[in-house]
Design brief:
Layout (H helix, E strand, L loop, with lengths): L1 E3 L6 E4 L15 H24 L3 H21 L9 H5 L10 H13 L7 E4 L1 H24 L15 H7 L3 E4 L5 H10 L32 H7 L17 E5 L4 H14 L3 E5 L3 H13 L4 E4 L5 H13 L4 E4 L12 E6 L11 H8 L9 E5 L5 H23 L17 H6 L23 H4 L12 H14 L13 H20 L3 H19 L1
Parallel strand pairs: 3-4, 5-10, 6-8, 6-9, 7-8, 9-10
Antiparallel strand pairs: 1-2
Helix pairs in contact: 1-2, 12-13, 16-17, 17-18
Length: 542
């Protein structure tokens, strides 16, 4: 065996042996392995008896067939699909005992190298959403597994292959650093408890011990402070406000809602002339689509972004914004954490004074932060009044900006927009991600079959097949033609006076279109064409 250079094939080294591990690595002793198989069989026998006692013969047959197949695979090759659902038997754990996880590995490494299993640090990024998700993962997994167990798809011990509960997670973390531009109530209360500070009224309703313990109040205290005031009153919070690029928090303007769309249009035109991008946040899906349609009608390349658009297409839209195929995205609650687009210099927030989940202090700060990656960053809040959340968010942003300006002046730093590589436009991965190349190697138009039926944005803005891939114009036209035919079943309407020859010819055309639809992975349309073909075949048999 030899190690060679992948380009020149020059021999770099000679090997006598090499270890190659499998993709999924599970290992246990032969004795433990046999004990686990016996334990699985014992549980299976009990589960079959349970279902039969309830008269659920189908579930009993299902769990027996599934588990016996897994046992046979385990005996033959030492592995089976979804082997993790039998982890309790292989680990030798008791029912309800937490599974082993990466934090156990950290503790083992800390003990091995430092003599103390508690000598490691956990950093939780975007903690205001990450910490609640720790509990959400357990409950979501539990809900799904209970349904599978109830209907005989899994043994009850499959539920013990699960995420950690919040108390388990917190008990395994010796030292935690919460990182967030908008800390959540659980993290702030946890800090107060650990450092023995007085807990503010605004945190008494939050779960204690970082989500592991009960709250003091069942609902929010009537004299709760704003998040800004609480952060000012709590000690031991490290404020990382100075950016290496010298960028400042964006300027903020508050404007009246009357004529807001027309006013915003002039601001957008100014940014488009400078080759910059804009984000707009609204409160409803319908309004997002209406604003986007209006901007398109005014010559602005725009598209909406909301929960009814699937995840892959969201990535397509954001990439299109960065590249310049789109100048404006109109969204609702997706333009927040983790969305770093340096090209965006303007963020507009409609109905900023409306109190609620989408316009609370944390949401406003996160949305405002989307304009902090560009040296010309600016935020416009359209409102008829000043809500407490608006006031706190504006005050916090402007105070940070003032401190950043002072630091830049003292150190002669000139703010510079973040330089971030644009997404590659001609790789195979991008063709697949943007929807121009399916796993079967077929071409489709981005958004053509998507969600709300308004997926023609790809063609209008020069996206999808023909623009982001190497697909030719002729191929694009053939795709459009075939999609048009697939969407018009009326072309194959059955009339009473059709002759045998006409029915036969139509049947052949329907079957051809059905196969074409299946190749494009449009199985819903293929099923409709299949039903139409069946109707035509019945006519021929009469």
């Amino acid at each position: 065996m030899q190690v060679c250079d992948p380009v020149s094939w020059e021999v770099l080294d000679n090997l006598d042996e090499a270890w190659i591990h499998p993709k999924e690595f599970f290992m246990t002793s032969p004795e433990r392995f046999e004990m686990a198989l016996e334990s699985i069989e014992t549980e299976l026998d009990g589960r079959i008896a349970h279902f039969k006692s309830l008269g659920k013969d189908l579930e009993a047959h299902r769990i027996e067939q599934k588990t016996r197949y897994d046992l046979e695979m385990l005996r033959e090759i030492g592995h089976c699909q979804s082997i993790e659902n039998y982890s309790l038997h292989f680990d030798g754990r008791e029912r309800g005992q937490r599974p082993y996880c990466l934090l156990d590995f950290f503790a083992a490494c800390a003990k091995q190298f430092h003599g103390d299993p508690a000598k490691f640090l956990v950093i939780m990024d975007e903690s205001h959403v990450s910490l609640p998700q720790v509990g959400g993962m357990y409950h979501g997994d539990r809900s799904r597994k209970e349904s599978l167990i109830e209907h005989g798809f899994r043994l009850p011990t499959a539920a013990d292959n699960r995420p950690l509960k919040i108390p388990e997670f917190q008990s395994l973390v010796p030292q935690m650093v919460y990182v967030s531009a908008t800390p959540g109530e659980r993290e702030l209360r946890h800090l107060c408890e650990v450092t023995r500070q007085t807990i503010p009224n605004g945190l008494l309703h939050a779960q204690s011990s970082g989500g592991a313990g009960p709250p003091d109040l069942s609902k929010k205290h009537p004299e709760s402070e704003s998040m800004y005031d609480m952060i000012q009153s709590i000690n031991h919070i490290s404020k990382m406000e100075i950016r290496p690029t010298g960028l400042l928090d964006p300027n903020i303007e508050v404007r009246e809602t009357e004529g807001q769309v027309s006013d915003l249009l002039s601001e957008i035109n100014l940014r488009v002339s400078k080759n910059e991008r804009c984000l707009i946040t609204v409160l409803t899906i319908k309004f997002a689509e209406e604003v986007s349609e209006y901007l398109n009608s005014m010559g602005i390349k725009s598209h909406h972004l909301h929960s009814e658009i699937d995840t892959i297409e969201r990535s397509e839209i954001i990439n299109a914004l960065r590249i310049g195929h789109i100048d404006v995205i109109v969204g609702i609650n997706l333009l927040r954490e983790g969305l770093d687009i340096p090209e965006v210099s303007l963020v507009a927030i409609f109905d900023a004074d409306k109190q609620g989940f989408l316009r609370n202090e944390r949401s406003l700060l996160q949305t405002i932060g989307r304009a902090a990656r560009n040296e010309n960053g600016k935020v416009i809040l359209y409102a008829d009044g000043m809500s407490p959340s608006m006031s706190a968010a504006i005050q916090q942003t402007l105070e940070r900006r003032a401190r950043q300006e002072t630091y830049n002046q003292q150190h002669d730093i000139v703010p510079k927009t973040i330089k971030k590589a644009l997404p590659a436009m001609y790789s195979k991965d991008d063709e697949f991600i943007t929807g121009t190349n399916t796993s079967a190697g077929n071409k489709r138009l981005v958004g053509k079959k998507g969600g709300r039926g308004d997926g023609d944005w790809a063609q209008k803005l020069g996206l999808g097949a023909g623009a982001w891939s190497r697909t030719s114009v002729e191929n694009k036209k053939s795709i459009e033609d075939s999609n048009f035919q697939l969407e018009n079943l009326n072309d194959f309407a059955i009339e009473e006076d059709l002759t045998i020859e006409q029915i036969t010819e139509m049947l052949m055309e329907v079957k051809a279109e059905m196969e074409n639809a299946a190749k494009q992975l449009d199985f819903e349309q293929a099923a409709k064409l299949r039903d139409r073909a069946f109707e035509l075949e019945q006519l021929l048999l009469r």
